[in-house]
């Protein structure tokens, strides 16, 4: 399959990268960031949203830190999965991403910023022409969404990143950098509807690193992933949870692969607080299941994925709470 | 000893000089044959020479006609495939590895519509694009082709209308891929979009515009491509059954998922001959089709089969892109390459038919199977492909291994506006086999008997005839069942494991070579021909048209030649790539290659063997009957020192002649019934298999994982046990994909939603169970050294074994394949609801308490075991036909013994109302019959 042509840029410092970005912005030229390329390049091969320029972060030194309190955007998922320095929950989530080969190249930053997916969208140009395009990549036609027809204002493509929910339950903070400077956003505020907008990154900005608060090492976490095959597959549903053992108020739960953004489930936990002593796991799993609304655009049907949220939440909670549940 | 000459044996190990070199004339024997690294003759390997000819190889299934040609050299030994070195070093040349000078790139314009007429195509802008060297449309090649002569319904590119999204519309060749892709956007086409049909059930109805038109044979104005009706036996036996099973199945379409996407290079050489490089399973059909479409005589076309990166049936049709490449190359005057993307592979498809199958089965008070009633509606997609045959196979390949009281089959294949279905490993037999084996499991449960004992007491014996007239020869079904029962510790596990853990059984039955060569009369022309040539260097060149698609056909041919001539396998060189040099061969499908080609190769090798022995006779003075062939030497049976080397005998045989040349052919014997469709499913031999699968079911998520498989397959004689085991394990993997996760998903708009290897879920190594392959050898009387097929049959049993194991685990029967977690979860949920809303973890596991029938079955099974052994070893050669179990006399026509014994291939009017889904195709009349009405 032939890759469409683009200009590849290799800045060597963060400043140089920001400079390149602001030049392109000033000249009104389109560009993409690329880290490991395992998400972007397959889409390029399908001629999806191909930009004139691609800025690679691969040659920038010092943005692949791996430690308990800081992980650089260029940290490879394979390295995270094997690392004893990162939080075990991150290592476990990273080890469940795609396949061994892909993990060797894929990065944390890329996984966080993963493009949303939809079986009407992740297809070749010929295929998309045969459905007369779709809202997410309408090729200037103003096409309707194919999942929820008769509208072209909302994109419901699914966010299928594996690691985001784990970052959420570990209270991660995303450091963003761009031509207008650096800023920090908690992971649970990073994602933004809809499937096209995806997150709060402004043009020219990219994710630099994720940091975690002091004490994160005391958190016990678990990530449960639903998939048909134990390799390659994106999550069809995923639930992460964590707590500091013995501190009920520290419990955090997040889910992924169910909607256009990963979801942080604080409100479901808040609503349940008073019945903590009774069937906490049962009520929480049910509440979280009810709160999500998957659509039919991945391998498994939405009704099933929704029901599985209950099972995944239950299993995740059982794992971290143990006999305290 | 007149005329012979005796060689002086040297000291024990032969004398050597101080520098380690051998002393001339002081050796045990002179360097025989090719010499090389093994100067001395190897001792005879008696362990690999059958008992019947004085060796030590046990023959529990009896002796074989080829035994006396066994030399203990290669047959029965685990060998790496002869082309494995090329493959593991990356030097095998697949379709995409061919690079010709001045090659240009072809791309195909594909239909964006499901079903549409082409009003006009304007190519002027395409032709004007710099770098474009040739453009072609349907108008450039209007002759039709197809793999079966009865259903030639394909064009190189759409001539009048397109029949599915991805159908070929036009093609272009340009200096590079980017230019060719750009050119595709410049075609201007006016369409007249038609109403598509996706649901095969709708295909049974009359349409305004059927997808194809068959003239006077067209069934009404429907999209029915082929309908089949078959009824045999005594239908009254199905009344008052003791047990019955009625299952409605929905099976999704699956694709072969071979590694190598299609790729072709076409080149018109300076003499004006077409040289076409393509990874084909059946180069001969492509050869014929190219000749028809291009209007060039076959002798002006050389089809060069590259290495094939997996086929499984998906590379056995002649393909339109092969025609396109040839047309573009002819126009451009330069070699043209067309490589497929994975998505194009799914659009050309030819995978297993999506099917609706309904099976009603009954058993009588002695637990005999009184009736099979099968209805199969199969979704053919846009073209006929192999579908004519598939329509039969869905029924007729279910007529064994069990003895049936009656058999009733209605089948229909309909065209829909989807990529064409075709032949895939286990062609036509897989889906109904699954349905039937699960039905047996259900009946066993109703009768409270063990499903393995139910099978063992209802098997057809060796050397018998099925209800539809197939001739069964060797039959290792019983041994296969016994060995998986033992290997899996079935008796201590079945219906005894905890919730979520289950074990299940499934059997299989498959043809070993189609008895009818599609293109010619088998009585006039053989199925397979092999040529052999030996020059003065002693190397044996074998020319065969057998297409090695990874299954090891080249190795099988080399092994049998090596065995007959007692030559090391590295002296056998198989040439099979070019149609210019290889004899006509039907190619790699219907599991025919080892059976037919190896038989032809043995015959050619026997011719050479005779010439060598006669030369040795002349030199030694001993008659060939007392001469022994062993490792590059021919010697007197009673004194190995009296002998000649292979080269000496060869050179003697070559005197006045030059190279030795021989040719061998195989044709199947006349057999089978005379009814319409009797040839479908007819084979010179059949393979049998039985698998036990163990599964873990997660009752909360519905995820099924298969953990262990005991897989017994009767391949007659394993010429190469390593290759047979590889086929068994590979079949398990492929069948597991179909039963657990693989499906071609057609969404709400009829588009194929998953034409890529991420979303088309072939099991990964993590999903692969531990497979214990068990080889059963029933020594087929007509197979080469007793061998039968091992490539397709082993796929069949894994599906029902898993489905039955899932029932054992959770007590829920599911008849929607694949068993993706959502399907299993849905079935579990409705079961828990029906039990009053219990938790999934409280589901009752099925348990078995034997009824008195169990003892009857065990006794009958034991009796039949004795019967089968005697028949297998030809100690009992009396006639046996399906029906003996029901008390009929095999020596009298069954029709004379019972009133109402049926052998019908068309329904009588009274039956029409009660036919199943596919049977409804018989409610319509053919056009020619309608004319009579008017």
Short structural summary:
The complex is a heterodimer of chains A (325) and B (934). Chain A has twelve helices and eleven strands.
Question: What this model shows, in words?
Answer:
The complex is a heterodimer of chains A (325) and B (934). Chain A has helices at residues 14-26, 40-45, 77-82, 88-95, 100-105, 108-112, 125-130, 164-169, 187-190, 266-272, 280-291, 302-321, and strands spanning 7-9, 31-34, 53-56, 70-72, 173-178, 181-186, 206-211, 219-226, 237-244, 252-256, 263-264. Chain A is α+β, with helices and mostly antiparallel strands. In chain A, helix 11 (280-291) runs antiparallel to helix 12 (302-321). The termini of chain A are far apart. Chain B starts with 83 loop residues before the first helix and ends with a helix. Chain B is built from 19 helices and 30 strands. Mean pLDDT of chain B is 93; it is low at 1-12 and 29-36. The A-B interface holds A 1-2, 5, 99, 119, 123-124, 126-127, 129-131, 146, 226, 228-234, 299-301, 303-304, 307-308, 311 and B 110-113, 165-166, 177-178, 181, 341, 343, 700-703, 741, 747, 749, 751, 753-755, 758-759, 761, 763-767, 820-822, 825-826.
In angstroms, what separates the terminal alpha carbons of chain B? 89 Å
Question: From the alpha-carbon coordinates, what is the Rg of chain B to the nearest angstrom?
Answer: 29 Å
CATH superfamily of one domain in chain A: CO dehydrogenase flavoprotein, C-terminal domain
Give a count of the beta strands of chain A, DSSP E runs of length 2 or more. 11
Residues in helices of chain A, as a percent range: 25-40%
Structural class of chain B: alpha+beta
């Amino acid at each position: 399959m032939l890759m469409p042509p683009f200009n590849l840029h290799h800045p060597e410092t963060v400043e140089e990268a920001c400079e390149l970005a602001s030049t392109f912005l000033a000249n009104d030229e389109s560009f993409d960031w690329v880290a490991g390329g395992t998400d972007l390049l397959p889409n390029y091969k399908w001629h999806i949203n191909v930009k004139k320029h691609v800025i690679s972060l691969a040659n920038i030194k010092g943005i692949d830190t791996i430690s308990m309190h800081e992980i650089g955007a260029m940290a490879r998922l394979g390295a995270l999965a094997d690392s004893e320095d990162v939080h075990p929950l991150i290592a476990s989530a990273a080890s469940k991403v795609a396949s061994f080969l892909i993990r060797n190249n894929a990065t944390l930053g890329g996984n966080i910023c993963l493009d949303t997916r939809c079986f009407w969208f992740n297809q070749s140009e010929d295929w998309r022409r045969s459905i007369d395009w779709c809202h997410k990549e309408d090729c200037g036609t103003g096409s309707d969404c194919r999942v929820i027809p008769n509208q072209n204002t909302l994109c419901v493509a699914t966010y299928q990143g594996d690691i985001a929910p784990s970052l959420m339950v570990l209270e991660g903070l995303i450091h963003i950098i761009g031509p207008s400077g650096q800023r920090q956003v908690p992971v649970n505020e990073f994602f933004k509807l809809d499937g096209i907008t995806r997150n709060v990154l402004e043009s020219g900005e990219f994710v630099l690193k994720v940091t975690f608060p002091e004490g994160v090492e005391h958190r016990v976490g678990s990530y449960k992933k639903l998939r048909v095959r134990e390799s390659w597959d994106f999550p069809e549903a995923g639930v992460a949870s964590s707590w500091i053992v013995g501190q009920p108020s520290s419990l955090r739960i997040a889910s992924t692969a169910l909607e256009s953004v990963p979801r942080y489930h604080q409100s479901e936990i808040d609503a349940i607080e008073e019945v903590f002593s009774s069937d906490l796991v049962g009520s929480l799993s049910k509440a979280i299941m009810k709160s999500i609304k998957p659509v039919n655009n991945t391998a498994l049907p939405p009704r099933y994925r929704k029901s599985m949220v209950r099972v995944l939440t239950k299993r995740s909670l059982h794992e971290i709470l143990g006999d305290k549940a | 000893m007149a005329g012979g000459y005796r060689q002086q044996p040297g000291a024990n190990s032969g004398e050597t000089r101080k520098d380690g070199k051998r002393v001339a004339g002081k050796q045990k024997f002179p360097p025989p044959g090719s010499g090389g690294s093994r100067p001395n003759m190897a001792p005879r390997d008696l362990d690999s020479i059958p008992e019947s000819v004085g060796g030590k190889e046990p023959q529990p299934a009896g002796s074989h006609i080829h035994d006396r040609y066994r030399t203990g050299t290669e047959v029965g030994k685990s060998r790496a495939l002869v082309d494995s070195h090329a493959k593991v070093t990356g030097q095998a040349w697949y379709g995409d590895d061919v690079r010709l000078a001045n090659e240009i790139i072809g791309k195909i314009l594909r239909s964006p519509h499901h079903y549409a007429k082409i009003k006009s195509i304007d190519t002027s802008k395409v032709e004007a694009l710099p770098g474009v060297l040739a453009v072609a449309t349907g108008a450039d090649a209007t002759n039709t082709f197809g793999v079966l002569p009865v259903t030639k319904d394909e064009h190189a590119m759409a001539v009048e209308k397109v029949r599915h999204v991805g159908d070929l519309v036009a093609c272009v060749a340009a200096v590079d891929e980017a230019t060719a892709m750009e050119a595709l956007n410049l075609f201007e086409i006016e369409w007249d979009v038609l109403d598509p049909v996706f649901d095969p059930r709708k295909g049974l109805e009359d349409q305004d515009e059927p997808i194809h038109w068959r003239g006077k044979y067209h069934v009404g104005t429907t999209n029915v491509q082929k309908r089949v009706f078959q009824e045999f036996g005594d239908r009254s036996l199905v009344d008052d059954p003791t047990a019955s099973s009625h299952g409605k199945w929905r099976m999704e379409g699956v694709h072969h998922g071979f590694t190598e996407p299609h790729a072709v290079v076409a080149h018109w050489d300076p003499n004006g001959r077409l040289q076409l490089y393509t990874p084909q399973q059946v180069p001969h059909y492509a050869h014929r089709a190219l000749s028809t479409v291009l209007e060039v005589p076959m002798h002006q076309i050389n089809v060069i089969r590259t290495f094939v990166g997996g086929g499984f049936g998906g590379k056995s049709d002649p393909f339109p892109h092969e025609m396109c490449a040839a047309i573009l190359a002819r126009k451009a005057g330069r070699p043209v390459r067309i490589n497929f993307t994975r998505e194009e592979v799914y659009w050309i498809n030819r995978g297993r038919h999506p099917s609706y199958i309904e099976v009603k089965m009954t058993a009588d008070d002695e637990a005999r199977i009184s009736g099979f009633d099968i209805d199969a509606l199969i979704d053919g997609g846009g073209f006929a492909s192999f579908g004519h045959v598939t329509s039969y196979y869905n029924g007729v390949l279910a007529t064994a291994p069990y003895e049936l009281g009656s058999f009733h089959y209605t089948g229909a294949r309909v065209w829909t506006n989807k990529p064409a279905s075709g032949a895939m490993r286990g062609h036509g037999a897989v889906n109904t086999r699954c349905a039937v084996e699960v039905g047996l499991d259900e009946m066993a449960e109703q009768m409270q008997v063990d499903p393995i004992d139910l099978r063992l007491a209802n098997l057809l014996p060796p050397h018998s005839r099925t209800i539809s007239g197939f001739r069964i020869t060797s039959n290792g079904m019983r041994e296969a069942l016994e060995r998986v029962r033992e290997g899996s510790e079935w008796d201590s596990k079945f219906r005894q494991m905890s919730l979520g853990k289950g074990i299940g059984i499934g059997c299989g039955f498959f043809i070993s070579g189609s008895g009818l060569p599609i293109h010619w009369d088998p009585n006039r022309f053989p199925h397979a021909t092999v040529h052999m040539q030996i020059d003065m260097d002693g190397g044996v060149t074998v020319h065969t048209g057998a297409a090695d698609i990874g299954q090891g056909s080249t190795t099988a041919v080399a092994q049998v030649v090596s065995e007959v001539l007692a030559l090391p396998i590295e002296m056998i060189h198989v040439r099979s790539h070019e149609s210019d040099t290889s004899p006509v061969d039907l190619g790699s499908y219907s599991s025919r290659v080892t059976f037919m080609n190896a038989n032809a190769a043995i015959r050619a090798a026997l011719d050479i063997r005779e010439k060598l022995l006669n030369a040795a006779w002349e030199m030694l003075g001993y008659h060939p009957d007392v001469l022994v062939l062993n490792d590059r030497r021919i010697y007197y049976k009673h004194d190995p020192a009296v002998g000649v080397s292979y080269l000496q005998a060869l050179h003697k045989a070559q005197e006045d002649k030059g190279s030795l040349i021989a040719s061998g052919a195989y044709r199947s014997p006349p057999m089978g019934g005379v009814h319409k469709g009797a040839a479908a499913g007819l084979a010179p031999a059949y393979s049998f298999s039985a698998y036990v699968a163990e599964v873990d079911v997660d009752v909360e998520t519905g995820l099924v994982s298969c953990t262990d498989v005991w897989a017994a397959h009767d391949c007659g004689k394993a010429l190469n046990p390593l290759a047979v085991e590889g086929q068994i394990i590979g079949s398990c993997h492929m069948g597991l994909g179909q039963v657990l996760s693989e499906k071609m998903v057609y969404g709400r708009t009829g588009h194929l939603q998953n034409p890529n290897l991420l979303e088309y879920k072939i099991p990964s190594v993590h999903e692969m169970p531990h497979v214990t392959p068990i080889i059963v050898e029933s020594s087929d009387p007509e197979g080469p050294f007793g061998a039968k097929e091992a490539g397709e049959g082993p796929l069949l049993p894994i599906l029902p074994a898993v489905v039955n194991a899932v029932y054992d685990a959770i007590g829920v029967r599911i008849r929607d394949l694949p068993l993706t977690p959502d399907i299993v979860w849905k079935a579990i949920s409705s079961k828990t609801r029906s039990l009053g809303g219990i938790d999934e973890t409280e589901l009752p596991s099925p348990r078995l308490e034997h009824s008195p029938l169990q003892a009857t079955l065990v006794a009958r099974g034991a009796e039949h075991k004795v019967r089968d052994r005697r028949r297998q070893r030809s100690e009992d050669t009396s006639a046996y036909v399906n029906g003996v179990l029901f008390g009929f006399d095999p020596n009298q026509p069954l029709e004379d013994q019972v009133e109402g014994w049926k052998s019908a291939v068309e329904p009588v009017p009274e039956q029409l109302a009660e036919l199943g889904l596919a049977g409804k195709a018989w409610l319509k009349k053919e056009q020619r019959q309608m004319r009579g009405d008017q």
